[in-house]
Amino acid sequence: MWALVKAALILVVLAALGVLAYAYVGPMLFPADFAAPATEVVKPVTLEIGQ
Fold it and tell me: From what superkingdom does this record's organism come (predicted)?
């Protein structure tokens, strides 16, 4: 049973390291995945002053 828990913990650590590596190296290798949306959003705002 301990071997199963140990294997699961190792997989969790490896997955966390993989996500961390993707966060740091990803923008260099896959810039389109990390680019911000380039669309302009315009919404009217009604301000109720004095109420």
Answer: Bacteria
